[in-house]
Amino acid sequence: MSFQSFPHRPKQPGTHCPGPRSRREFLRAGMLGMSGMGLSDLLAARAFAGQASSQTSLILFWMWGGPSQLETFDPKPEAPSDYRGPFQAIQTRTPGIEICEIFPRLAERMDKLAIVRSLHHEMSSHNDGSIELLTGKTPVVPDPTSTARSDHPDLGMITSRLRGVRRDGVPQYIGIPTQPFMTQPAYLGLSHKAFVTGDPSVEKFAVPNLSLAAGTDVSRLGERGALVQQLDQFKRGLDQSGSLEGTDEFRSAAFTMLTSPAVREAFELERESAEVRDRYGRNLWGQSCLLARRLAEAGTGVITIDALAPIPGQPVYFSWDDHANAQNGWDLATGMKLRAEHMDPAISALVDDIHARGLDKQVMVVAVGEFGRTPKLTHSSGCMGRDHWPSAMSALVAGGGIRGGQVIGATTSKAEYPTERPLKPQDLLATIYRHLQIESSHAFLDFAGRPIPILGDGTPIRELI
Length: 465
Hints:
single chain; alpha/beta; Alkaline Phosphatase, subunit A; eight-stranded mixed beta sheet; two-stranded antiparallel sheet; 13 helices; 28% helix; globular
């Protein structure tokens, strides 16, 4: 079964076109394409943007579902048993800093890592919390059903818009294996959605429409039915009045992406040695982290690793949403052990590589979810879990020129609320934007013509810069 076939992943809603518009107005208003993210959608509107001048990158390990702060980076070994959870804390390479025992490799690399323990906000549903973390915008009306979609673009879409199309065809925003489903490009235009790769751990991995053989005759590209169909559909959606200038330009850009050596090589994981691929882990997260490193080296601005995936042979999904679940015998301890077996070597190998390859200033790595979990354990027929808790959450940061071996902020003895250096998602985003050399006060016009700043508030975390 393919990853995309799992029913829990909501689809992006369609965008209705109210009628004929000018070409420039149509692009600006975000009405590109009617079938989601395609090559032409990715490239068409970006033709108006300049070449990216910055080479810094972000790799976001997006821990959708809400990872427990106690079972990751803010353990409380002295708390009562119904708070501290099933695992012990272990010392890290940096004296005085402890993390959960299921991450021994990360503990060995604490001198290259920073932990932010005092993040907090007020959104307790998955989509609202995700929107807050990824866009920096607080939903006006909270949606407890977690079906909300963002009214504002996320950090990858903004990076794509401001950096513009690269001459070598490498996309500025890439989602591995998919993109966060609750964010939309809104007034930036659909061309700034992430380019989605699929699962890089599958045998003979190849990104759709980027798998041309090196010797393919460029003159035959026009015969590729899928690509031509995408481009023709794009033309029909954009050109309601019967004329469209620039179609050849957009088609040429798509062909450039298809034939670009930089694009093709960035996605070719087989160029890596077996030893390197094994070190990351021959699984979705391991190969995703390795691919993300290659894409950052190639110049992609933002790469998200959607840390939500099916577990082979398990009846539940591989999110971080660890409620006690008596129906299938799944609980917090089971889930965290299995995730750590994949995440610990993958992130550790990524951190090692960005330092060994001289990328530790160019590439920032952030691992975070949309909220934390309730400090007190819940129980159901022998299963333990924790519920949603936005009042305290942790993030792991590496690279980007940060000083490693430090913890920023602190929470209460039971990981309930920040007690030192309380920080909000907007502060973390401001730090990321600073690394990406994006001015977070920059404003875009929304559909009503109102200026919307990238961040309404938020200050870069001084300890990280």
